[in-house]
Structure formats: structure tokens, C-alpha cells
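Possible race condition, two jobs.
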Amino acid sequence: MRVLLPPSEAKATGGDGPSLRTAGFGAGPLADARAEVVRAVTAFCRSKPNAAIAALRLPASRAQADLAANTAMLDAPTMPALDRFVGILYQALDPASLPAPARAAASHTLFVSNGAFGLLGAAEPVPDHRVAMTAAIPGLGGRGVSTVLAAFWRARLASALPDLFTGAPDDIGEHLVVDLRSSDYATVPSLTGPARANALPVRALTERLVDGRWVRRPLSYQAKQTKGLLTRALLLADTAGRPVKTIDDVAEVAESAGLAAEPRGTATAPTLDVITRWHPTT
């Protein structure tokens, strides 16, 4: 099993890992591309801060802090990606409380789509940053015009994905790919070949009580929470002797975690809806 996650804008600060300038960007297939993006973003934020705030869509309440974090990416301390992201999905996943086997499994099971680093393994060290996949950054690929990061990464991830997922391209077809990405990240990377054949897109929905009847809606907060709960349940199941290999396995794990699951799609292109009920207190 492999699980694709979106990042979160909320991130833990600090860290005790070596900086990217000290440790480099690793020996993986994305190392050079990551270095190019990080250097371009830091230069952009340093030389044209107002333009960078607009291009990166940094919220006014955090613009200066986020700008400073982006400027310092090369020299800031790092921590594992799974600990760096602390938004709603990751709060529900609660990596700090995972049993040791599940935490170890996360390092080769969970992958996070990310504007600055392309696709991150859960254990990969990253500094604090705020770089959206939709941002247009000048200086990438030696071009004078700005390049949208989604387009930059889509091209580079297409060939790198098998190695990132398995370390052995011939093995990628053996893994179910549970796709929990949000719309901004749904095609970065695009799943092709064996990965596409084994992909299971999952949609998180909420049933809300409206005028005495349950109405199904894609509510943002609850959807993120549901995806975090499902990810945690999948890790726990996979390390408790219940390997997750099919859509039925995912549905069973979801239901055992208190979530309703409804398979959809076709036999060759399955999808899964995972549903929670929201009981508003007011």
C-alpha cells in the first residue's frame, strides 16, 4: 500500500535536523529539482518580497513570518515531513501517538505532494516553508518568465514516481495507491501506467443534519479530518497483520474506524467515498 496525501499550510516551526545546505537534498531522483526550486523561492522571497507574497498567496496575518521561513529554507533546521505538517489532516493522523511499527511503516507508505519538494516521503527532513503548488516562481529552468510549480513538478515526477514509490520500478504495480490528495495536488504527480491501474481515489464527504434530514456535502474541515483518521487506520491495520491491497480492504478499514464507506466507479477504475456524520452543536 502507498498513500498519497496533500500537505498542510500549517507547519511546526523549528527542528533539530541538519539544514539542507549542510545535508543536501539527498541522492534521490528529485534532488536536483528540489535544489532548483528551493533556491529560486529563497531568491524570490529575498529580492522581491512584495511580489513573492502575492505570487505565493501568503495570508496577510502570516505574510512576514512565512516570507522569513521561505527565505531561510536552505539554512533552517529540518524535521521529518510527517512531523512538520500539523494541519487538520495531520492532527487526526496524530503521528506522535502511532505505535512504533506503524510509524516505521509510514516512512515508506505515506507520500506528501508539496510545492517546494515535489513529493515527500514521510520521514524525509524538511525545513519550515510555505510554498503552494499553484505558485508561479521566476528563474526555474533558466527561464526569464515565471513557472507554475505544478507544471514544473508534473514533468519531473512522471519519470521519478516508480523509484520514489518502491525503489524498484518493476514493483510499483504490486501496491495499491490510496489517493487522498486535494484538488490543487490531484495531478501532481499524475498517476500513469501501473500506478494508475492500482490507484484508488478517495473522496471524503460529510452528512450534515439540515431541516431534519441528512444532506451529504464535501465540507473542508471534516474532509481533512476524515482523511487523517483513515490514513491512521490504514497504517494500524497494515502493521497489525491486515494488509491493505484492495478497495474492499480500504472500505473494511474505514468502517472499522467508524467511517462509512461506499465503493463507486468501475471495476477497472474504482473510487471510494468515505463518509462521516456531523452533529452540529448549535
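Job #2 (started ~2 s after job #1):
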Amino acid sequence: MVYPGKWFRASVMALFACVILFFSIAASAAENPLLAAFHQFRISNFAALNAYYRFSVNGDTDTLNEIVAAINESNSQIKQVDASAGDILKDDQIESLNTEFDKYKHLMRQNINDVRKNGYPDLRLVSDMANQAQALSSKSAELYDIVRTNNNVKADERVEAARAAAVLMAQMMSKYSARSTSSVSQTFQGADTEQPLDEQAHQFDEQMSKVTEGHPSGELRAALSSVASKWAFIRGSYINYNDNNVSFVIDRYSKEILRQLAEAIAMMTGTPVPEQATAQAPNS
């Protein structure tokens, strides 16, 4: 005979086990090594560009090390893309991405050397690099979408929204850094087809609304709430980007948002936070 109390406890335990299994499956389904590598590749490339703009006016060794670390991370991630591509991407697609990345790295080296040698940047080369960064981002986004829409890849909508928000933040951060740097302010626009900062800021709002759907709880809720509070502090600076603002504050808070979005993505996918993401900014 099964007593009601024992039946109830057994039912609760079974239900609890099912819930754990469900969330474990959901977490593993939301993650894909190829998507994760592409995402971090894009973030790191913009992080390098952002650091370069600051390096162009201060020539600081720590800022140079920041550029090198971001480029090294991009190198690691593009190798991961190649290793994980399988049958989803063709060899010529990977080769095309590598070609665009090599151009970007070459221009970065040239621009760094100009600053170290002359003490100031060559604006033509900086403009070329800004446009190449946009071309590399477009190529990465194109291949990312091919992977995301593949029948064998299961993408989670909230994870995708968080990644889209992070890429937008990285783009905005680098453009704002360029605009705040008087010597390269005319190149901040990047490619002619790139959206202005205020439009990107509104898109960031839209993506974050998708991320917070379903009323997340626990640590995820805390991370997203922290993103929201920091975004509220700097949002006006991105919307009204012609106003005079304290650029290092914008830079710091933007990096914090990137770090916490990386943490949120890690929670949603059940994976470790990328090392580069944890180095974006110190805890506040």
C-alpha cells in the first residue's frame, strides 16, 4: 500500500527531477561551439578597435597590451571556428573570413606602428581600418546566420538576443571611443552603411527586451538587472552622442555591460564565461 504522504513526496521528487532534466536539455540545446566562437570573435575584434582608438592618443603600454590580448583572443576563436565548422560551412567561406581577418590585423599593425613611430595616427589608414572592421563584422554576421539557421543547430531566442545586444554594445563602444578621440573623430562612422549610434542604442533596447522576457530569476536576473542599471546611466550619451561626456566613464560602463552579458549568456547556456569577457572590466 502506498500512503498519500509518500506518494506526494515521490511525485514531487519525480517532478523535480523532470524539471532539472528539462533545464539541462534546454541549456545544452542553447549552446553551439561554432556560434559561441563566432560571437566571441566579433566581440574581440571590436574590443581591439576600441582599445586602438584610445592608444592613438595616449600611446600607453597597458592599452597596447589590451589590443594584443583582444587580437590574440580573435585568433583563438577563428581557429575554433575552423575546427567546429564541420559540414555547416564550406572551406571557401572559412578562407574568406580568414582573408578579411588578415587584412584587419595587417591594418591594425600598421596603425599601431604609426602611433609608436610618429606619436600620432595616419588618418587615412585609421579610416581604412575602421572600414575593414565593419567588413569583417559583416562577413562574420553572414556566416553566423548561416550556422544559426542550419537545420542541425538549435538556437535559443534569448541567447541570440543577448549575443545581438553584446555585439551592438561592442560596436557602439568602439565608435564612441573613436568619436571621443579628437585625432580620429572624423573616422568614427566606419563604413558608409553603418548605423549611427542613436539607432544602435534603440536596437540595444529592443534586444534587451527580448532577453528579459519570461521574467528570469536568481543569478540571471541579477546579472540582467545590473546590465539595465548601467545601461540607464550611459544610454543618453549614446543617444545624444554629440554632447560632451566623460568618455572613460562610457568606456568603463560599456565594458561592464559586455562582461555581464557574457555572464548572462554563460548562465543561459550552462557554459563557462569566456576569459576575454571576464577581462573586459573590473567588478564594480
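The two ends are 58 Å apart (CA to CA).
Logs attached separately.
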